Amino acid sequence: MLEFFQEYKSQIIYASVVIGSVIVLSLLTNLLHKWLLKQEIKKYPDEKPKAVNWVKRILNALWLVLGFIALSFLFVNEEKYNVLQHNFKLILYLGIVAVLTIVGAASTNIWFRVSIRRKVENAEDPTSFKFLRYMAIIGIYITGVLFALLAFPSLKGVAQTALGGAGVIALIAGVASQEALSNLVGGVFIISFKPFKIGDVIKVTDTMVGTVVDITLRHTVIRNFENKMIVIPNAIINKEKLINFDLGESKICERIEIGISYDSDIDLAKKIMKEECENHPYIFDNRTEINILDGHPVVRVSLTSLNDSSITIRAWAWARNFSDAFDMRCDLLESIKKRFDKEGIEIPFPHRTLVFKNNKEESENDKRDSGKKENHKE
Questions:
Q1: pLDDT tens across 8-30, in order?
Q2: Fold of the 192-244 domain
Q3: Which of 235, 291, 337, 378 is 20 to 30 A from 141 via CA?
Q4: Following DSSP, what letter does each residue of 158-169 receive, concatenated?
Q5: What is the pTM of this model?
Q6: How far is the C-alpha of 227 from the C-alpha of 211, rounded, in Å?
């Protein structure tokens, strides 16, 4: 045993140092992970520490792989020694790039989240920050991948060209589809020209109405009034003609239309609709001082059309915002209907007259009679 130790003393010491270094580095990584975890939970209790966990896993795996390669130096000849040395440097470089990329992206994400939260608390528009957050994080990851490609000779030229500046755009355009690029450009247009922002209530179609909750590089997310998320690609929403209920003034004019029969009292129906609208708590007085002096009513009620079996009466009722207008419309339709029933105002509904033949003989007799009448006329 002593002879074996004396003969391989340097190799045993080297292996012990390598194994001890791997153990020490793993312990330090775990201790650093616990400390960073506590600090992140203390500062950002609402954030999930995904980046810290990923860094821990990458570092522990890196120490094990590097330790295995370092131990392999003891069992290879000079030619393979150079290959292992190159692989050792390559893996160390890739590990460092991966850790720095994850740390940079996580730090950027946390900074943007904190800034967005402050803007929301200060009642400011966070739309630009939310969009820029995705841009910055994707940019960091792309840069990290390009730096990793520099380690491979066959891809080094591509990475250097891309990192040079304009090559980034060319690289993205080469690998991305036309649809992805159009969505990206659409997102940039939304942020630049701001047809809507996060928190606005918009209507894209009759089935897509809700509050904008997020704008990403690819799509816009709308939460409808059923609490369902509607994901619309930016390229599509840029082509649509949409209604933004929060762009400019938030007040809105709701048109309450009800049809009554020709036999009903028009003046009484108009009076009922006016009273019900003006007594609603969500009604908004949109009159100017001149309108008030001229005696204009808070709610205008007029006969708008004469139909086949009904007369349409419309009331123009103003509300402070879209949400109040929707609730007010629902309440008014119900209250006006009840008042109409109480006051004897009829709301007509379509009638249809059906004629049934008793049997085939009657139909044949009718045909014969019609034929005789025609012959008689001739």
A1: 677 778 888 888 888 998 899 88
A2: SH3 type barrels. (2.30.30)
A3: 235
A4: HHHHHHTSHHHH
A5: 0.53
A6: 10
